[in-house]
Structure formats: structure tokens, C-alpha cells
Design brief:
single chain, alpha+beta, 5-stranded antiparallel sheet, 56% helix
Amino acid sequence: MTLKNRISLLVSLLFTILFGLASTVIFVLYSNFRKEEFRERLEIKALSNIKLLVDVKEVDEQLLKMIDQNSINKLYDEKTLVFDSNFKLIYSSIDDAKIKWSEEDLKYLKKNKTFFKQQGDYEVYGVFYDTKDKDFYALISATDDYGKRKLLFLRYTLVVSYIFFTCICWILTSFMVRKALNPLGLFHQKIKNINENNLDSRIVSKSKKDEIDLLANEFNYMMDRIEISYQKQKEFTAHASHELRTPLSRITAQIENTIADPATSIKGKTFLKAILSDVNHLTELINSLLILSKIDTNEAENNEIHRMDEILFSAMENLKKSFPEFSILFEIEESDNLDTLLEVKGNKNLLEIALINVLKNACLYSDNNQAEVKISTNENQLIISILNTGKTLSEKEQKNLFQPFMRGKNSKGTTGFGLGLRIVQRILNLHKSTITYSIPDINSNLFQLFFH
């Protein structure tokens, strides 16, 4: 999970949980408040009835019923019962509602003075009223329809508000977090595109001085040091390779002259030829390192337009000089935009070196001294395919195929340093092109060069 999604999820979940808890607390508190308020109303009603019945001489049971019936504060489905000290019912209101009661309830009232309980949809309040002469017990029952409607409305309001504001929170949080971390996404994309060809790339930092800007500044400082170190390394490789070429050229010339001298014995010539072969390999390695250093320091850039078929023919001719026994079967696939795609902007010498290296690779690892070369197109791409038969590479070897000094198991018995394909890839990267390796059939190796 990405950092953006993680932060959005955590913030949204936190809001959802807190809002849910707040809504629950509000509902519970209001429910308790309604119950307490209704209990107080029942208490006032019960005490009023007892006082009217007991303390006011002019009020009898019938008059109290009339007063009770026409009371402005009449409760919903109210039922009132009044008992004397002998638990005898001395007053009952005229409505049809019923109160379940027992002597145990009245005894409980005498001991605890009041109680409040739920009976189905009704709420019952009991109160003990003590006078000098007698004791009285009052039970009053009613339904708080008005309070319950308000409680139900509050419940719906909280549920709808919870769903609505939770959805709004998730959307806004996701949007705000993405907007806040958008510079981090650009930062990641910039880093992802940095390679050895564009070490001069830097992250543009704004004046906010937040953590992302601090990270960008430190990254730029790190890239400065890496670029300087990388350039020094490449310059050393280039200078060392260049300086080594001169003495090697002298050694090669002296060995060749000694071999050509008639005074040299046959045994001496054989020995010198072996030394000359090693010197030539060393010269080839130094030339490869020099080419890589020129590519890495961008000394080989060229914006001239060249035809790839002409460069390919030139590479094939040069390869024939070194490997005359090697045969190449050439094929070109006609298409409407072939002539346009054959024109590639870049350095002719480097492109020819790349093609020679791929062809040489096909020659060295072929089991029949033969390769098939095909020029084709695919939409806006020019494709040069080079196919040969021979031992193939394992999946592990394919992953490291274009790494320097990498040689597979099929390279046993062949000369080389594992730099050829690395040079090809670096040249193609410089020309914004790619190379791929695949195994289309058993014991078949296919290299394809894609030019955009």
C-alpha cells in the first residue's frame, strides 16, 4: 500500500471511529435525559394527584377524575392508581390503560420511597407519600410518545449525518492527502528516471521548506557528489585506456616484426604468436573500455541522420574480414514507411560498432557459422533481428546479460570479456533505442534492436 493511501485510510478511519463514538455518546446522553425528564413529569403528576386527593377536602374522587381528564399537561395513555396504607385502591384514573402491580411493589415503595421502571411501551413511576395520619402510594404509567419521536428523529439525524460526513471525509481526505503528497510523487518519478546518462538531473525544491523540500535539497547535494565521483572514475578509465594503447601498439609492432624476421626460430614464432594473441585481446579490452568511457561522458553524441541498412551492410563487411567462414542470410521486409524509419539520427561509428558486436556475438556462439539478419517494421519502429542457432542462456543469465563482464555457460571455449553486449546497450541507450534477447525455439538465440 502506498503512503498516500495509508495516510488517507488512517485519517478517514480515525474520523469515522471518533464521529461514530461521538454520535453514540450524544444519542445515549439524550436518551437518558429524555427518560429522566419524563420521570420528573410522572413524579409531578403523581404527587399532584395525591395532594389534591388527600390534602384538599373539597376534591373527591370524581372531581379529581374530571381535573385529571381536562388537565393541560395530560400525558399520553396515562394511568394513575392511588393506594392507602392498607394497600387498598382508593383512586383510579378513567382511562383504559392498565398498570401491572403487586403488593411487593407497594412494599418496595414504602422502603425506597420511589421507583421507575419500564413495562413494555409504558414507563411506570411509583412514589410513597407519608402524612401524619396515613400513608399513600401512587403508581402512574404513561408513554412518552413525544419524547420518543424526538429520540427517533435524533437517531435518524445522527445516522444520516454519520454516513454523509463519513463519505465526505473519505473523499476530501483522499484528495487533500494526494494534493499534499503530490510533490513526493514527482520526486519519485524524477528519481526513477535518473541513470548514468543523466546524473546532472536535479529535483526542483520550492520555498516551503517542508520535509519534502529538505529531502530534495539533500538528494541534490548527494547527486552532486555522485556525479563528481562518477565523472572522475570515467575520466580515469578513459585516460588509463588511452595511455595503455600506445605501449600496447609498440609491443604489438615489435612482436609482429620479430615473427616476420627469418632469423626467428619456429619455436620462437609459435611462442610469440601466443603472446601476440594475448596482447590483441588486451588491446581489444582497452578499446572497449575507451568506447564505454566516451559513451558515458557523452563525447560520442551526434545528430546527423544515417540509413541503418547502409550501416548494417558496412558492419557485415567488416565482420567478414575477421570471420570469413561466417555466412549471413539477409532479409528485408518491405513496408510503406520503411524508408522513413531506416533514417536514424545519431553517431554512425557507434551504431556500426553496436551492430558489429551483435553480429560477432552471433558468430562466436553459433553452432553452424551462420546467422539470419532481418530488417522489419512495427508501426513506428525499425526492428533489426539477428537469429542464430546454438546453446541458449538460462533465465538467471538472461537477467544479467547486458551487465559488464557477464559471460554465460555457453561461452566456454570462446574468447571475450563480456563487454560487447554492454557496449551495444549503452550505444542504443544513447540513441534512445533498445535491445532484447529471446529464445524463439529450441537452441535458437534472437537479438532484436528497436529504433524509434
